Amino acid sequence: MKSFFGSLRETVATWRSRPRIPVPRGSDELEVITRRFLLYGVMPLWFVPAVTDYLMHRRTDIEHTSGTRESAIHALMMAEAGIPVMLGLFARINPLVLGTMYVAAGIHAATALWDVQVATEDREVHPMEQHIHSFLEVLPLTAIAFLSCLHWDQVRAFTGDDPDRWKLLPKRERLSGRYVASIVAAVGGFIVLPYGEELFRCIRTQRRSARSRG
Predict the structure, then answer these.
(1) Mean pLDDT of 49-62
(2) Residue 30 half-sphere exposure, CB side, CA atoms within 13 Å?
């Protein structure tokens, strides 16, 4: 027992004697890493569960179960998530933009609860789909949290007196055109097209069902 505590004390002493890693400040390495994580990590990762969720809806025959009602909720949720994305790509981060993102995230979370309630009434929601939903709910919150840390001065500016804090302004340093084009194309290909197809399929099935009854 003594040898164990002796080794433990030596380990702690060695750790404390190591030089501390300086914490970067301002526009330095930490900020660059965080920005890259947001742009090339969180953003692309959002598309994976979105497409997987669409495939789960198709697998459980959404057009013949919960149908147009649930699919319309999905379209609403994508719009709620898309507004903060577009603001982050093109607008200067200030209290107006951050506040809009916070509100959109809250509405998105409430809509997600509504979506699950509607889905479980008429359609089997597998545990895998529920797990996918957790990613779709957490990723927007993760992005907003990191963005708030990057622009903490703008979070504090909520109570400031800068007249520009409640104006929608273009970015001072715009993102590269190639990156923006890639994200817009990905949103179109992985979000708009599949969920638009789902809504179209549900509406078509609903109309066919109405004609057959009539």
Answers:
(1) 95
(2) 9
